[in-house]
Amino acid sequence: MKRIVNCLLCIGAVILFYSYAVPVEAASLGSFEANIKVPDSQTNKELMYYDLLLQPKQTEELSLELKNTSEKELTLAVSFHRAVNNSNGAIVYSDSSEGKSDSAAFDIEDLVAVSDKEVTLKPNETKQITIEVAMPNEEFAGVLAGGLYIQQVGSEEFEGNVQNLFAREIALIVRNRLETVEPEIKINSAKALQENARNAVSVVIENSTPTYIGDVELSYAISRDEQTIIEETKMITFAPNTKMNYFIPLSGQAFEAGTYTVKTTLTAGDNVWQGAPTFTIEADEAKEYNQTDVSIEKTPLSWLTIGIGVAVGLLFIFVIILVIKNKKLQKELKSTKK
């Protein structure tokens, strides 16, 4: 018994060690700089990103300066993407595979080309790359928004088990006219999902207009069969013509079978948009979600339950022994009668 206890203690110590092991970061984040060269078409010369006023069919060649501020050679990957809102509500330019709205007049990714997809810089070296912008033939209202995503390419040689790769995002906005566009937001749908092995709800919210919408107060209340589960308010900014799959974690709460409603209100100045999309979860679906959610505390077996289980097991074994002995006695009685 003592050996078994010692073995269990050793296993527990190993589990705790790996649960709390902290990865070692390999490098400093400040490895390069990216600075724009302000063109004549820039609407505001003080901006640290591109905001261009261009006419239909007009082309513009932009210059971007990349500088290696480290003492090691590094390679930078350069790409251009449409501006979208990620699942946390932040505007990003690193990936536009999700979040695009079909409401945009043109896709800015079709209008912008980067001269170099990859740039290698020696220690403290500076290089220039160019960005070609070709405006569409037709005039459009509002803005088309995208951005350059510049990221350090990983090296095969680094210390520790985590390699920090510094990245920069630089917005690039084009427009035909300096005018305001009346914003419009749609609350499309909601559904249950699981992300990073945790239960969550996703609400699809769409900015269907070609304008940034800033200082938006997003309030939501998730209820199941009229019982409120989560209620919260956030501040976000919408990218133009973006469809955001907003992620609401349940923070350790289990899904239960029933119909869920996500009452959503967005407020920006005098504008207010409301919606209440619903979705339904069946009992077997809820059970599957909850079993794989690592944040839900699994109820451990109590000592009473364990004791009852052991007692039932011993009783079962005792009954089997009695049955075997009874059969043996019956055979002996039959043999003596003969």
Description:
The chain has 338 residues and is of the alpha+beta class. It folds into two domains: 24-175, Immunoglobulin-like; 185-292, Immunoglobulin-like (Sandwich), CATH 2.60.40. It has helices at 2-19, 283-292, 303-337; strands spanning 32-37, 50-53, 59-68, 74-82, 84-85, 91-92, 112-114, 118-121, 126-134, 143-152, 167-175, 185-195, 198-207, 213-224, 227-238, 242-249, 258-268, 271-275, 278-281. A hairpin with a 2-residue loop joins strand 12 (185-195) and strand 13 (198-207). The chain is elongated, with a radius of gyration of 31 Å. The protein starts with a helix and ends with a helix.
What number is the mean pLDDT? 85
Could you say which structural class the secondary elements and strand pairing correspond to?
Answer: alpha+beta
Rg (CA only): 31 Å
Question: Using DSSP, what is the number of strands?
Answer: 19
Number of domains: 2
Question: Could you give me the name of the CATH homologous superfamily of the largest domain?
Answer: Immunoglobulins
Helix-strand pattern: HEEEEEEEEEEEEEEEEEEEHH
What is the topology, as strand order, of the major beta sheet? 2-11-10-4-8
Name of the CATH class of the largest domain: Mainly Beta
What percentage of amino acids are in beta strands? 35-45%
Low-pLDDT runs: 1-29
